[in-house]
Automatic annotation (TrEMBL), chains A, B:
<dbReference type="InterPro" id="IPR036412">
    <property type="entry name" value="HAD-like_sf"/>
</dbReference>
<dbReference type="GO" id="GO:0046474">
    <property type="term" value="P:glycerophospholipid biosynthetic process"/>
</dbReference>
<dbReference type="InterPro" id="IPR006353">
    <property type="entry name" value="HAD-SF_hydro_IIA_CECR5"/>
</dbReference>
<dbReference type="InterPro" id="IPR023214">
    <property type="entry name" value="HAD_sf"/>
</dbReference>
<dbReference type="InterPro" id="IPR050324">
    <property type="entry name" value="CDP-alcohol_PTase-I"/>
</dbReference>
<protein>
    <submittedName>
        <fullName>Uncharacterized protein</fullName>
    </submittedName>
</protein>
<dbReference type="GO" id="GO:0005739">
    <property type="term" value="C:mitochondrion"/>
</dbReference>
<dbReference type="Pfam" id="PF13242">
    <property type="entry name" value="Hydrolase_like"/>
</dbReference>
Length: 306, 306
């Protein structure tokens, strides 16, 4: 993100509560961060059905105080950092900028092919929240931006960008983090990636698709496990197939342990460090069950309490 | 609309400020009108990023006071009566209902083919408002509902309905109104439709498309005129071609008058009532100019003042 902060001058940052995303962007080093609220404050006609609240008016910056018109401002990139709190006006403003002459506010390109890049911080169309059924997420808004752009420009295409899953770069970044963690926590050589990474997720379109793509590309193994407790609905056909389908995250962890132990149990050449397995555990593994470990703490207590 | 009020019991009404659309629906005779606010009040997890305001909480009805769960309520039809003030939550709730078992709240259909009908009160993707550039309208939200439905159901299609232009039924309704008006105002036989209707509009996709379609179907002539003061941008190729392109509404009216007068001027058989044209007016028409009328009032004063 710091790379982007160096590359782009004025950026539009979308999403989140109040000024949070502007603060985050500035903490990344972005030098000139404007928000949809700033634009609406300068020209209320931008979003005919959105009235800024008093605190939004107070916190939004006065773009006209720069001594000119909105059309003096050129947005060099758009970042959707968190879920939009007002889809209609954020969509309108993103489309205005996508249709502009090179990012210049309140202008229109003749061919609609010179807007600045638009980045979304993730890509899940659906996510599993407190509601019984999955909710629409940022990926839906991303799709909407692209679809409506095509509609209003008579068929021109807009290609926006997304960080995060299922982009392989996200998994490569995770690999680097894992290597650092293995080095600092376990004294392993930082240059060695883990032999196998078990990736547990609830969303076929991001978690499983990305893990499988990373597995194709990577020297080490990325093993996708899909759980039934989130976006994926048991009984349906996932668009991207996991290596293993289980009920819960605990089942996924048990599956990974079993699979690793089975590898060790059948490994004859003595390579790799053996785990201290007693006869009962080996028997359990051979029967496809999870061995009983003596755990001093419940590793899931924290996750459940969160 | 009264027909719908008789046909459907519980309906979801979307759009508008506060409770206005509920009031409108009830004035049409709808017997049980619920709003997205009612649903969010009963289950805040429905829209994770929307917090109802105090007045929304106060005005929204308590659906659980009916003595049960949300899943006891079956929505028989959805009406978008005015522009949505919160696209994300209205979209979520419309999609929830479109994916439900026959309109039953908080349920999911197995095949996503049993949702109740969804009606939009108009269909313009873009409209010309106070902003220099056209703004997204209800037609964009309609398209979004259909597109995102397809996305989240793995490719199932959702066909929503729209009232108003460009639906031919809207033009047929206008014809009936015109016939009544001609009868009461001018004593003409109500059974006779006007020979020619000049339809002036700014939006090729609704005004011109609809007028041309009506002209195809109708015995009388519907003549489409596109103006340059609204959605249509001068110099571009309109998706639907008008019979005449002019600058302003005044030019459209002048064009209609000229065309009618030219018809009269060249009509030799004496059929039809002649307008009292003096020599100067006839000369003006023959030169393609608009005759000067003595007008006691400025017919555009009211339109401009509005």
């Amino acid at each position: 993100m710091r790379e982007f902060a160096n590359k782009y001058g004025t950026v539009l940052v979308v999403g989140g509560e109040g000024e949070k995303c502007r603060d985050v962007a500035e903490s990344y080093g972005f030098r000139d961060v404007i928000t949809p609220g700033d634009i609406i404050k300068a020209n209320a006609a931008t979003a005919p059905f959105r009235a800024l609240t008093e605190s939004e008016i107070k916190n939004s910056r006065d773009l006209l105080a720069r001594g000119g018109k909105l059309s003096d401002i050129v947005v060099e990139a758009v970042f959707v950092f968190a879920d939009s709190r007002d889809w209609a006006s954020d969509l309108q403003i993103m489309l205005d900028i996508a249709q502009s002459k090179g990012g210049r506010l309140e202008t229109r390109s003749e061919n609609f092919d010179e807007g600045p890049p638009i980045y979304f911080s993730h890509n899940d169309v659906l996510w599993s929240a407190a509601h019984e059924h999955v909710r629409l997420g940022m990926g839906a808004l991303r799709k909407i931006v692209e679809t409506v752009f095509e509609d209003v420009t008579g068929g021109r295409k807009l290609k926006t960008h997304a960080f995060g899953k299922p982009q392989v770069s996200t998994f490569e970044f995770a690999t680097r983090l894992l290597q650092q963690w293995r080095a600092t926590q376990h004294g392993l050589a930082e240059s060695e990636p883990p032999e196998t990474v078990y990736f547990v997720g609830d969303t076929p379109e991001s978690d499983i698709k990305g893990t499988n793509a990373m597995n194709e590309k990577s020297k080490n193994e990325w093993y996708s496990i899909l759980v039934k407790t989130g976006v994926y609905q048991a009984g349906t056909e996932p668009k991207h197939k996991p290596r293993k389908l289980v009920d819960t995250v605990l089942d996924a962890v048990n599956h990974g342990i079993r699979r690793e132990m089975a590898k060790l149990g059948t490994r004859k050449d003595g390579k790799g460090r053996k785990l201290p397995l007693d006869d009962a555990a080996l028997k359990a593994i051979s029967e496809g069950r999870t061995p009983n470990f003596d755990l001093s703490v419940d590793p899931f207590a924290k996750a459940v309490a969160q």
